[in-house]
Amino acid sequence: MTREQQVPEPPGARGAAQADGLPFRASVLAAARAVARAAALTAALLGAVSLAGWVVDVDALKSVLPGDPVAMKANTAVAVLALGFSLYLVATGPVRARIVAARAAAALAALIGVLTFLEYTTGAGLGIDELLFTDDTAATATGTPGRMAPNTAAALALGALAALCASTSRIPARVSQIPALAVAALGMLRLYGAAYAVPELERFGAYTGMALHTALALVLLGTAAFLARPDEGPAGLLTNAGTTGALGRWLFATVVVVPPLLGWAVLAGEDAGLFGARLGTALLVCGHVAVFTAVVLTALAVGRRVEVAHARAEWQVRQNTLLQAFMDHTPAVVFIKDLEGHYLAVNTRFEETTGLSREQTLGRRDKDVLPRVLARQVRAADLAMLADGNPVQREESLALPGGPRDLLTSLFPLKHPSGTPYALCGVVTDVTERAAAQREVERSHRRFRALLESAPDATLITDGRGVVVMANAQVEPLFGRSPGDLVGTDVVDLAPAARRRRHGALLGAYLRLRDPKPMITDRGLYGLHGDGGEFPVEVSVSSLRTEQETLVFLTVRDITERRRAEAERAERYEQQRHIAYTLQHSLMGEPPHLPYLPSAHRYLASVQDPGVGGDWFDVIPLGGRRTGVVIGDVMGRGLEAAAVMGQLRAASHALARTGTTPGGLMTGLDAFVGDLADQLVTCVYLVIDQDACEVTLCSAGHLPVIVLPPDGPAHRLSAPVGVPLGVNDACGGGVPFEEVTRPLPPGSTLVLYTDGLVERPGTDIEARIDLLTHALDGAPKDARTGAESLDRAASRLISTLIPDTAVHDDDVTLLMIAVPAGEGTAPAPC
After folding, report:
1. Model's pTM, two decimal places?
2. C-beta neighbour count of 260 within 10 angstroms
3. How far apart, in whole angstroms, are the C-alpha atoms of residue 303 and residue 250?
4. Which of 150, 504, 775, 791 is placed for a possible disulfide with 492 were both Cys, Cβ 3.0 to 4.6 Å?
5. Distance (Å, rounded) from C-alpha 179 to C-alpha 170?
6. 697-706 confidence digits (pLDDT tens)
7. How many CA atoms lie within 13 A of 766 on its CB side?
């Protein structure tokens, strides 16, 4: 497990770093580096003092330690000084300038040690032994003058190798720490030889012996090189904060301290004559057995604790693995940081958002991971939350590497059982889309509210139960209640108390419709003023149904003025209708009742006009048993058409009394209509000759006359149809009006009518004329004789072709004339 892959440390390990799967306390690592610097600096000081002795030629400085006849050689002093300086820089920190200087100093020490060792192995003199100073201590434990001891040369070469490897982070720490232990061991051998008075450990044969302070300097240099990188390699096994480090330090101290002490005690007893060499050896063995037995028992107890801790750690690892899996599958960004802001854990979403891998994030701070401005904002938020001590949640817009985003951030502290926080956790959810949708909803709500307030009428919105959920400002001048007061009340409360039940029933019936359509109604609806008065209203109602609720939109308008205007208009209309009706009847006149020619008529004015129109008919006695019958229709409606109709009726009556033929009458009327501007008239004129039992007629664009013979079905009276009156002048030439004479058996009935009777939008007028013909066939036989029977037949025809006379939109004129079969009474002379 690498440093970046480890799970967050448990509570209580705050401030510790992690490496090679072992926990480390920053304070322990700092102390180890301080020891390394102190050891390197002390060794460099020993080398500097000895070098000063060579410079000033003071033997006491060359030996340093009193009583040691062996001096530190000049080359040894230079190498020790350089190596101490190099290791001091390495232990201080990985600054480029320091590393370059440290490597240069280590290279100098390596050069001196390697060249000297080559002199021993090859037997050649390279001229470096007295390069700096002439050796005047050659008589004291010295082989070749100025040449350092071979074990010293080997130790310096190994020390230089350790310094060079320690200054390169890419090289594993054990590559530098194992030579460092060898350097310290070579120095310890010299110290053990001095402590136990064993010359063989001080000097090998005839070679130069190692000075005592040189041995001390080598021990210090080995210690400095070993602790230069205290959180890695074998040194990490001793300095870690776990049980491994505690057990390792205890065992190491036991090994380093106890055997030398036991050996020194046994030798002291032998020197004092307390026991011999064999007994001393036995005592030494017994002492080692006892000590190592105690060590083994202690290690077993520690091992038991380690097993328990390992089981707990495995459980914690499983929990952390589950936690990490949960974090990685969470769509939100999740992170855990210590109180100093170092990232302890992040999830996959964090990596995707920042663009940095987990290895590039763990152990670093915000400023190393996020943009500078964002890092300051995040750190300020973390500190504010930690200072308050309570979880916080906030929504904010931040400029991320991928662009601005809306984020919902939740921060909360992770606390010890005692309540003291040891870390903080953050959950950041990207709510950009939701925030955009919310802003759009708010904008839509504002637009809707503005639209609601701009409506000219009082508008209320209710739920499906009729409770007001919103109202605009126009409700206050209408009902005397503010919009806020209306929210939450029943909308029927705005109606008078006596009418609320009906109003509520109408609203309920509308809502029960399967697919209610917008509608407007004002029938019997009333509102209630704030002063208690009621007023008529028009209500526009529509609904909006969703899966969650039903909303009803009510637009209420006060129609008091409209009702007053309608009443006034209705009164005026009735007055005008009465006047028009009187005018119409005065213009049309009442046709004469001829005993020898019974007749019945119907006239219905259009509901769109004040009771007047352009239809007219007339029955004109012509002398003898000859009678003229005319019916016409002035195109258009209203008073203008009625005025033209009055003139045409008078003109046709006058022309008919002159005895003119039907064709001549049409020609005269056509000339008369031609003098009127933009007028068009249809007309038919026929002369009934009862003595000759025939009828002569001429049609100017009018609908066909229907005849019901006494012994057959009703049918159209065939006759040529000319152009309407008023067309000839427009065409630029006269089109003659043709007349025709047809037999008319006694007992026949003639039916004359205008287009208002048979013409309907969307229907074929020929089919409607056929309908009229068939309806005439169904008339009783007695309908062909007397006036009363004709009157009943006329009513029946009207009801058949116009079921609802109250809504017809055109003038209707119907004239039925019966030709008796008997010898009737002679008419009066004309």
Report:
1. 0.43
2. 15
3. 13
4. 504
5. 17
6. 999 989 999 9
7. 0
